[in-house]
Structure formats: structure tokens, C-alpha cells
């Protein structure tokens, strides 16, 4: 017997409007500011316009949504992400490939994302405004992380022994390891892949270290 396809849940009125609110926030605007920048009446996206006087739900038009995406320099894919993860309280964070993280210009001296060339991805919310995402490349972190997995890194989150961390050395090497021990003079790191060696770094070799707070597994 053929397997019946899994039923998909229809989008809700609340989901669509929540995604539009997040689209405005992503652009640094209020809903009315996004409407105005889109060439629409400033009240188009106001909460008072989302339900009619007799209680019927009013949905944004395809035209207004298209103009909002263009005005906020966002793609339909981004909006779909905001409907999914974003609608459950997520946010967009900067994203680059893991190999790029070792290149210059992507981080400041504190390990915060900086410069250009970052993409964006909608992921579960974090209270760290400097949080960012890295896309895993290669198999050096298997079985913990596979190629294509996305990890969210939070520079502001406290780090404890046993946490998975991203470490960047002063020489530009970037690695994901488990923190085994940390003192004022050294950093002892356990490899996530048993085929790769553990690492011991002098404190002066470490440019920055940040905790992995989420993975897309």
C-alpha cells in the first residue's frame, strides 16, 4: 500500500503577521516604518489593521508582502524561515561557512562578528546580540557535527568545563572542541572526533573562545 503523504499544517493569521513583525525588526524598523519604506500607507501593517471592525481576520496582500521584502532587502526564503523557526520566537543571526571563520575581517578583536560577507539564517532566539552561526564543513568534527550542520555561537555566554566551544588562535586557526580545562596560562581541549588529536594551547595563543549554544541536528 502506498504511504500517504504527511499532512501539512496551513499557515495561520498569527504566523504571517508575526513573520512580518520580525521582518520589520530585522530591518531595524517598526511595522509602520516598514510599510512607509515599502511605499505603502504607514498604517498598512499596524496591529489595528489586522482584524476588521466585525472581527474578521485581515491578511497582508501579496503585493504588500512583495514590496516589504524588496524594501527590507530580504528574500522569500528569509520570510519562510521567519514563518518557521522565527514564528516560534527565533531571530536572524549572521552566518558564514566554517572555513571563512579563519580568514581576516569576519571578527573583531573580541570575537564578535564584524565586517561584510555574512549571510543570515533564522534560528532559535538567543539573548546575546552578538551571537552568530557557523556552517560545518568537512568531517573533522564527526560524529558530533556533520558537514552542513549549523551551530550557533554565543560570545557572551559563560563557558564551563565540558562545554563545546569555538576557539580561534592568534594564527587564524578556528576549531570546535570540548573544553576540558582552562587556567590563566593554558587551554586544554578535547577533540570531538576520536581520529583527531586533543589540543593544548598556551593562553597567549588564544585570540578568543566562545560557547556553542545550539546545533541544527
From TrEMBL:
Statement: the UniProt record of this protein carries the keyword Membrane: no
Keyword annotations of the record: DNA-binding, Transcription, Transcription regulation
Domain (Peptidase S24/S26A/S26B/S26C): residue spans on this chain: 94-213
UniProt-listed InterPro entries: LexA-like, LexA/Signal_pep-like_sf, Peptidase_S24_S26A/B/C
Gene3D superfamilies: Umud Fragment, subunit A
Transmembrane feature ranges: none
Name of protein: Helix-turn-helix transcriptional regulator
CDD domains tied to this protein: S24_LexA-like
GO molecular function list: DNA binding
Compositionally biased region (Basic and acidic residues): 51-60
Spans annotated as Disordered: 30-62
